[in-house]
Known about the structure:
Layout lengths: L1 H7 L3 H10 L2 E8 L11 E4 L4 E6 L5 H13 L16 H4 L3 E11 L5 E12 L4 E5 L2 E6 L5 E6 L1 H12 L3 H8 L13 H12 L2 H110 L10 H78 L4 H14 L2 H5 L9 H77 L5 H22 L3 H63 L1 H5 L16 H67 L1 H18 L13 H18 L6 H15 E2 L4 E3 L6 E2 L2 H15 L4 H25 L1 H86 L8 H86 L1 H56 L4 H76 L6 H40 L7 H55 L7 E8 L9 E9 L2 E4 L6 H19 L5 E5 L7 H18 L6 E6 L2 H15 L6 E9 L5 E9 L5
Parallel strand pairs: 3-16, 3-17, 15-16
Antiparallel strand pairs: 1-2, 1-4, 4-5, 5-6, 5-7, 7-8, 9-10, 10-11, 12-13, 13-14, 17-18
Amino acid sequence: QHFCNNFIARSPELLEKDRVSMASISKLSIRGVRAFSPDDDEQVLEFYFPCTIIVGANGCGKTTIIESLKFAVCGALPPGNKSGQAFVHDPKSIGQSSVKAQIKLRFTNRGGRTMVVLRSMELAQKKKNMTFKQLDGVIRMTDEDGQRQSLSHKCSELDRQLPVLLGVSKAILEHVVFCHQEDANWPLQEGAVLKKRFDDIFDSTRYTKALEVFSKLKKEYTSKVKDHKADVASYSSHLHAAEGFQAEVEKYSDQLELVEQEIEENNEELNRTEEEEKRLNEILDQLDEIQLDVDDKNNSLHTFTELANKTRKMLEDDLTEEKSARELKEMLRDFDSKLNDQIDEMDDLQGEISRLKNEISELTQEESKLQSQLGRHQAEKDAQVERQTLRCEKVVEGDNKFGLNSTLTAFSQSQSLTQNSSFQEASGQPLQLEISKTDLDDYFRALGRKKSELEEDLNRKMKLRQQSEDELQSQLVDLKGKLQSIKNEQKKVDQELAEDKKEYEDVTRQVSQISRVRKDDVEDARKNANKLAAQRDSLNKDPRRSQIATEIRSFEDKSDRLKRDIEEDTDALRDLRETAEAQHEISVLKQQIERDIEDLKESIQESDFALKSRNIDVPTIESSGDETSDELNDGMDKLTEDVSTKFQTADTELRKAREQFTALQSVVAEKSALLARDQQVVHSKRDKLVGLSNEGGIKKVENVLSELCQFEASNGAPTPPELNETKPKELLAYLEERLEAEEAESLEGVQPELIKKIMKRLKKTAIVGSGTEVVCPCCERGLDDDESVAIFREKMNALMASDSPLLMDGENNKTAKSQYQKWRKIVTENMNDILEYRRIANEVNDMEHNCSSLEAIVEERKEDLDTAKTSQDEILSEVDGLRGLMESCKMWQGAVDRINNKRSQAMNKSNTLSISESVYSGRDLKTVERDLAEKTEKKDEYLEKISRLNKEMTKINNHMSSASQKATDAENMARDKEEKFAGIRKLSERKKHLNDTISKKNKELLDLKNNVKPIKDKVAKKESERDKMKKHTKEEEDEIRNTVEQLKMFENEFRELQRQIDDFDSKNDANALERIENQIGGFQSKRKAKEVNVAKIQPHLERLKKALDDQERHKKNLNENINLLDLNAKIRDLKRELESLQESAQQVKGRDTAKDDIRNLQRRKTKLGQQNARLEGRRGEIHENIRSFKRKLSQPEYRNVDEEYRIASIKHDTTEMAVRDIGKYHAALDKALQRFHGLKIAEINTIIRDLWNLTYKGEDITSIALVSGKDTGSRSTRSYNYRVVMTKGTTELDMRGRCSAGQRVLASIVIRLALAETFCVNCGCIALDEPTVNLDYRNKKGLAVALAQIIASRAKQRNFQLIMITHDEDFVAIMKTELASQTGFSMPEKYFQVRREEAADGKFYSKIDAIDWEELV
């Protein structure tokens, strides 16, 4: 009842909206599907509003209709026909190789537009098997302009589009709206099948997949967060290392600045040296310049002297001896003054002549312009005369050519004659060519009259030609009409003759095929028919038929009264059951409230220690639940606020601790990176030191030092102890010192003979006097005793011998020098390696010291980091605990909200229950149920009696129908024999008549052929006359037409000529020529006057020019004398300047020592250059180190490491944000999906409960419901399990496996109806195939009542369509009765019957017929 009330309660606006927006189906046609014939006409089924009933026996093809509907809208084949072979009519049964099937469905889409979908299939029989193929589908529609449009689609695309057009998902269409009979009980199938069906119906699969995608994305992005975090750490270490390398670059840059500063100081000193050198060079340059000036002055003096001599020779009159230069210049100045006066006068005269010539030129130009105007006016006047002459000629030409008669014609002829004669030359008078406007108008009128006459003549001739042509054409038409009439008659006779012959053959064949019928057989058949008709009439008069109708009406009245009582008791029973359910729900709610309060108290007690340890007050909750909702809410709000405050404080401390930990971690990472970098550098430098020590110059210098010590020790001169391989400069200085000493003692280059001579000379020098006294030649000490003399002589002899120690010492000195030079070269060549070794060793010592400092700092910071980590972990533990308490508070708050909500529900239900308790006072639930059962049983008895009476009436009707059928068959047989007898007689007569007609037609055809030739000859003659007349008249018309065209052309040319004459007359000025001639005369007189003035000035100007030429020659002589005096003055000046230059050269300071000073400065420059070279080497080394670190910085892991670190940090942060956002989206979608699912399940169960109470008449099952439970999977893969449960009393049981077949059928129908009401918002169509299977009479009747009420309530909605297919005519009759009696709604005019009918080929095919409702019972 509640379900029906929901339909009835819809407002008119919603109903109107349904009419506009809901889809519906209109008509279905089937051909070649299952038992429907592929060759006959397609079977058509029309769908009515609000219900369409289809009845038929088993196996006649009723279910095929549902299958066709389902295939048309979703493309789904019936169960067990995945390949589709059994869905199409079997080609083997009709002896064909292939069968094509077609299904057409006309429907109205959700937009209100009528459309037709056409699906075609083909089943082909191959050698071994059959192949099924779906052809492309077609959708036809009518556009806004009324034009039909057809769109072809692939099958898969059509399957997607049709559910969209109907506004219903494919799952609803397939499993709810057009559910197959074999799948009708799917709501009670096994769990996996049920879950898949409901997931498709709820369309939750794609949302579940979306949740899975969110979970997968979250996991993926969480992994990316870890990767990005590792990247950030890696880039952080690289960043610290890069910063260390950058620090090294800066350090070497500082060293580079120092070296460059030294280089700059050397360069400054070098610049000072160069400046001093430049100063000295300037002194030398000054001396050179003085010498050059002296040379130049001498050259100039020589040149001026020669020039003065030449000038003196060229003078006409030498005045230099008589006059001074000043006097000559004064003479020249006076001369120039007079000359200038003459030049000015000559310039004035030349200017006057130029001015007069310009004026003459201007006057000449003006005169030329006027002459041009005069010529142009004269030319235009001549052209006007020519045009007037041509006009006269045109007039004469027009008269001669077109025969014009006008006064202008006579005038023009006279002018033409005059012009052709020598009248003008003889008389000297101009021709009179002017024509008045009156004469011109008269001439134009004459032209118009002539043109009109010609056009009228042309029209007259054309009219005469047309009349002649029409007359001839009429005669031709008559002749051709006669000819065509004869041909048509001939053709008609031929056709009639052929038809008569064919009919004659047919009659002959029919006569031969029809069996002979005798007159006695006809009389016997008529007697038998009359006898059977009398038996039928006697059965029609049986009184039992009227008695049965009276009894049925009596029982129906009693049944109606019981129905009204049953409805009242049903309402009371429903209300009482609702009251009982409400009481039960209130009791359950109170129990749940107590349980929830107890759970809340236990949950808070579990966290009691955690709360109290943080000085948070724990609210007291009474176990009895006596607190009000406000007290409970206040306690929980205070608790939540305290926990939130603690949590925020701890979270702030945690952030600070994390920041401190991060800062320390950054410092440790930075110092660790620097330490690792320094250790790496130290290791590389040690390797370099080992390389220099083992293979470089250090080893060579060590060998030099060892050899030097041995060599010096062998010579008795030990080396200083401070010398070692790391002090190359000291070692080099020692070797230089030893070389200088050896150089001083060296005898290199002294010949041994020379030494011997010297020694002999010394020996002689030592002997004094008579040879007995010997004196030392070196110290001049006398040798007193003989022994000393002997020793002296022995020594001297030894020194003079070939093995003299002096000679031996020279060889040793040479060997020592070569050794020292070799060792000096080795030390010099390897000095850079030694310096590099010493520099690297110093750097290694410094860096080892730095490493020790960094290690101490790192250890110290690691201890601080461990302390910060411990503090952070403690705070984090506190935050996690408070976060857990926050979650617990949210959970407790939710529990409080649920408790308050349940309290509110219990209070509302109690208030509602108290209002409804007084309505049915005096009757309890059992009493009402008992009364309802008794009345229902009595009503069923009445219905059983009505059914028995109906069956008796049916039996009588069947007996009467059988008698009627026999009488009809006998009557038909008698009529058949009478018709055959009459037909044979008629055919014989017709055969004779046709034979006579054929003979007449042959004769008539021969006469018509003879009449054709004379008419054809007349037609040819008339056509020849017509062609000749056309040719002659066309020539005359063309001649007149050409004359008219020439006249029009002549008129246009004449009018254009007259227009030009008129234009000239309107623009022409008669006095213009005279005025221009006067102006030309004035200009000519002025020009002649100015030419006279020029002639007067010209002689005086010539005289001035001649005088000026003589003055110029005298002036030239003066100038040359002045120039000669100037040259003499310059010669004297040059001589004085030469003397001055020589004195200046003597006065230049340092001119004697400048060259020596320059040499000293160059030596100083060389020394500074060497120092700069060493510094440049150092700078190159520093540059190399800087480049080395920069190369490291340019390596992939350090290049743009700061930008990569920034990008990695951004990626890490944004990916973390994405993970949080995905979690939010997942939670929101999950919550929305749960809510949608819950609302739809609740709505479906409400409809199921109302329909079940209305249809099910048993007492064991109170209600049924659809239960949806969450799957045990994780939230990320949320899914739902479905099951149908039934309630027996207060016990809820699974319905599958615990219900009968009838209960299963009824429950499936109820669930499908509920699903259709919930999900078919845009389409009000549902089909029920054999809904009464396994239902007893009571439940069948209950289903009929429910469907009748649904039909009646939804009949107001135009788009509601219930399609019911059944073999049970009693069920249909009950529905009809219920609709008529309870709701006042009647069935549609017709229902459809599906039957099997034998075709011409002897096969039985399904047929669909529309039957009136009156024929159902």
